[in-house]
Amino acid sequence: MSDIKTTPDFAERRRALDPAHSFIVQAPAGSGKTGLLIQRYLRLLAQVDAPEEIVAITFTRKAAAEMRERVLTALAVFTQTDSVADESEHDKLTRELAAAVLQRDAGAGWQISANPARLRIQTIDSLCASLTRQMPMLSKFGS
Fold it and tell me: Who has greater pLDDT, 52 or 30?
């Protein structure tokens, strides 16, 4: 992605990171939607009491796996290297958000790197199934 400050929707991308508001992100393939969602997820993760409080849902297992991998990669990359001079604004912001998450992780003892299953990044179907398992009597599921 080119320098994010040169993109026409720079202001909208920044607003989409505000956890006080909800957003719908629509854009063509290759425009950075997943990167924006990763940044929002990291922003939210740095502000909660437990990682399980945030649920990111998508349509396919492949997309959910990619999102999880990108969150974990953002956290791992932050711990391995310092800021790079030619780093894009997008990467710099992701690095800052990852740093906040790792600080929160250390303070709360989450150990996300050792327990990546605590990140609730899943498909719509798996979210529905987990909700159904929580109320087996009402759903008559498993009885």
Answer: 52
